[in-house]
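hey so i finally got around to running the thing on that chain from the lab meeting. sorry it took forever, my laptop kept dying and i had to restart like 3 times. anyway pasting the input first so we r on the same page abt which one it is
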Amino acid sequence: QFCITIGLISSMLIVYKQLNYALHKDLGFKTENIINVSHGSVGAKQKVLIEEIKKLPGVVNASASFGIPGLETTANGYQPEGTEQPQLFNALFVDDNFFNTFGLELLEGRNFREGENSDIKEFIVNETLAKQLNWKNAVGKSMFRDEKHEIIGVVKDFHVGLIYSKIPPLIISKEWAERYYSLSIALKPEETQKTIEDINSLWNNMMPGVPFNYSFMDTKFESL
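ok and heres what got predicted. didnt touch it at all, straight out
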């Protein structure tokens, strides 16, 4: 009985340490005061949606994407410059507000320029990908997928999948804008509920028949 009790306590301590680690781990991007709305209709109206949402006094920034940091990404085959075979890399497809909305840090190069037709063929990669390819100066390098894509920046690593797993090599692109399904909105901490109500009202006017189902990013990570 005593041995079983000690074993149970030991197991509980391990679980507690794992949960504590997960809850306090630096994800590499902001989750506080960011809400997320996901729906397949976002892509068609993302530009005007973001323009109107950013006018609200309680909104800091807003971004549309295909994929959600730390939760959902896709993966594609790319052939890096200097190699002979394609490699499978994780990918996030984002707009030009994405980096500022999530507070991501560029280590090298520049962000995507504003405008839906700007930098749609250029890539930003994470530091893990640059290290894996031994690219000490990644800016100016290229990837091939159907056509040539120039690397314009390197972003500091952030979690794109399960927080217990290693950060994978990642490509960030502005392609696929019409398929963006995720809308992430950074809010000012004061009057959060009032701002959400304003966004809800705006959403209902612009997206009739589409439910405004939102979640807080930090709460979503805690529940996971």
